[in-house]
Design a protein that fits this description.
There is one protein chain. This protein is α/β, with parallel strands linked by helices. The protein contains eight helices and twelve strands. The strands form three sheets. A five-stranded parallel sheet has the order 2-1-3-4-5, sandwiched between helices. Helix 3 links the parallel strand 3 and strand 4. Helix 6 packs across helix 8.
């Protein structure tokens, strides 16, 4: 059975391209062009939501916030904005990926297929792995009950890995979604931030594992 994808996009030309490409790839797309309409649609029939941010009726962030109030359906955000703050905000609200316009429809389909192959993410604003607790809304981290002070990048990096605990997260994805593009973040820069994060986590830093040729993975142990 074809997997259903909900596309929320008000650009008629782009929407038609994406719908046609999704159908060609074997998906069953449903396309809506208004944020208010998207707020009224149940996410349950869909395997994934592709969500534009600048929408008539309601902003994409409002749609995302309502969705994350009761659904684990993966969300891939579309935006013409390349501001790091928008990317961070989307991830904090529970988005799985962030694609900047303009883009090739084939690239979008590839990202959708990759997302659907990955494990489901943790969705609560409180992410927990072992004795690590991350409050995404308050942007605070506690380890064994003690607060750990992290920089903005270190926090976003740890939160991204915790949402996908046990799964390898590609370095290129972390560079794009965690580092500040205005400061020309590179994979080498990412490695430096990972090293600093490990040091701040002390002995538990070893659970931020390197996946050679791919990226990083949070291998936090479960309860004894």
């Amino acid at each position: 059975m074809a997997k259903k994808v909900l596309l929320v996009e008000d650009d008629a030309s782009l929407g038609r391209q994406v719908v046609d490409r999704l159908r060609a790839a074997g998906f069953e797309p449903t396309w809506v062009r208004d944020g208010a309409e998207a707020l009224d649609i149940s996410p349950e029939p869909f395997s994934l939501l592709v969500l534009d941010l600048m929408l008539p009726g309601a902003h994409g962030f409002d749609v995302l916030k309502k969705l994350r109030g009761g659904s684990d359906v993966p969300v891939l955000v579309l935006s013409a904005r390349n501001d790091a703050r928008d990317k961070v905000r989307a991830l904090e609200l529970g988005a799985d990926d962030y694609v900047t316009k303009p883009f090739w429809p084939d690239e979008l389909v590839a990202r959708i297929q990759a997302r659907l192959r990955r494990p489901a993410l943790q969705r609560s604003h409180l992410l927990e792995a072992g004795d690590l607790a991350i409050d995404v809304q308050a942007r605070r981290v506690h380890l064994g009950g003690e607060e750990v002070t992290l920089t903005r990048v270190e926090f976003d990096l740890l939160a991204a890995l915790a949402r996908r605990a046990g799964a390898a997260v590609p370095r290129a994805w972390l560079v794009e979604h965690v580092l500040d593009p205005d400061r020309e973040g590179t994979e080498r820069t990412l490695d430096v931030h990972v090293s600093r994060l490990r040091k701040k986590l002390g002995a538990s830093g070893r659970y931020v594992a390197t996946v050679w040729g791919v990226g990083y993975r949070l291998d936090w142990p479960g309860p004894p």
